[in-house]
Amino acid sequence: MKNKYSRILIFLAGLSLIGLFLFPVWKITLEAPQYPGGISMYIWINKISGDSPGTLQNINILNHYIGMQAIHPDSIPELNYFQYIVILMTLLAFLLAAFHKRSLLLIWTIVLVLLSAFALYDFYQWEYDYGHNLSPDAAIKVPGMTYQPPFLGDKTLLNFVAYSYPSLGSVFIGLSMLFGGMAFIFKRKYNIEQ
Question: Is this prediction's pTM over 0.85?
Answer without folding.
Answer: yes
